[in-house]
Prior knowledge:
Layout: H1 2-25, E1 47-59, E2 63-69, E3 77-84, E4 90-106, E5 109-117, E6 132-141, E7 157-163, H2 179-183, E8 189-198, E9 202-210, E10 214-217, E11 245-248, E12 260-270, E13 280-291, E14 296-297, E15 304-305, H3 307-311, E16 323-335, E17 338-349, E18 352-363, E19 365-366, E20 371-373, E21 376-378, E22 381-393, E23 409-422, E24 425-438, E25 442-444, E26 448-458
Antiparallel strand pairs: 1-4, 1-26, 2-3, 4-5, 5-6, 6-7, 7-8, 8-9, 9-12, 10-11, 12-13, 13-16, 14-15, 16-17, 17-18, 18-22, 19-22, 20-21, 22-23, 23-24, 24-25, 24-26
Amino acid sequence: MRLIRRLRDAALILAIALPATKAGAQSPAPSPPPVEPSPSSEPEPFHLWGEIKTNARHSRFLETRIFTPTGPGPFKFVPTGFQRTPDAATALELQNVTLGAEGDLGLGVAAKVELHVLDLYNRNPTSSDDRLFVRQAWIRFGQRAEALRWASESRLFVLAGVAPRFSKPTVRALESYGMWLTAVGRFEMPQIQVGGALGRRAYWRAQVGKGNPLYYRDTNVLAGDNGTRASTLTRSPTYETGFPIFYDAKADDLDTHGQLEWGVGLGARRVRPEPAHGLEVDALGWYFHRRLADSVTLRGTSDLGDLELLRGHGYPLPFAGRDKSEAGVNLAVRYARWRLDAQLVRQDIAKLVRRGFDAELSALFHLPGLFLVGETPVGNWIRPVVRVSIIDNLFDAPVTYPALSIDWDWRKYDVGLRLGVLRDVDLTVEYSRHDMIVPSVGTLHPYEFLVTLRVGLRQ
């Protein structure tokens, strides 16, 4: 009966919120759990869970030209296509349905399986990529403590399966992504990961696995469609190209093709058990390396990943070699209701270097319940969030490269508010402003406004 009441209340809130979110979106404007878990020293028992996410989205229309040379002489170029906002519209979308099972199996063994259905904002190309895929599937021997979580960690743990990089931040307060969380390690990878505690304060990590193929996607929630049609001169009936940046796409299969990625990390933490209060800090330095393949076939697009992507259909970037590496520092800080999650990154893609950071600041305020639906209080907590992302590219692309936006410098500013409506039901309202610095044109702003209603179920 309790589950039936929760479903009834969630359905009522959904019916109230969706029209409101649609109306709000008509005005211009990884995943980890949306609410950071409470610190606990006990492993979570194995359980089933699920969630549904629906969105109202407004994306601003912008377009820039794609050029092709008309002859060998300088400055003889003609526009042969366009980069455009993937879907410049106000839309109501069913984003994703997730089914999962995870937790402790006993004797220090834990496992997780996470299945995504639709996953609209992670599909690339958006219109033709998988509608159903296993996002995570792994088993771990030994205990591992996440950032800012009071929990014991084994001196040695071993994890095997499809899992995130150990460097991926575990908390994301907004539904959208920071630019570096998109660019590096957004998707899980087949791997073996080891690590453990080095005394009370320090820990280490290492992993080896199949590197995710290098491809590109738009910086807003829809990846866009690249390599799906012969010409971009006319409007697409589905999705446009977007303004892509390089990123680590989904693994194409479980075969490594000899292109293994390895990574190491060393961290230090200062975390307090509840109900103690005070400053808590977790810092992790990390490094990853792999060699790019000559080409990688990606589902749904005629474009090829890795080195072939850099060759640009005959108009290559100024790359050299095939080494790809990332070095970075993660910093998580919590004090009372405030939390800061930041990531500083330097990436080298075959001598094409870019650098920058993501920094997200949020505060969690508990509410007594704003009003009642039946006997259920509505409005349990609220979390304002501010995020800043910067990517500086230290290379120049030729004007004829098919996706010129990959060498533009970017600034992204996100502001949002997340409201805990009911238990396992929350509403997020956010606005993303992009400063897309286009040489010889100026700074363009492909902003986006997003409202997300998440309904979770747990056994």
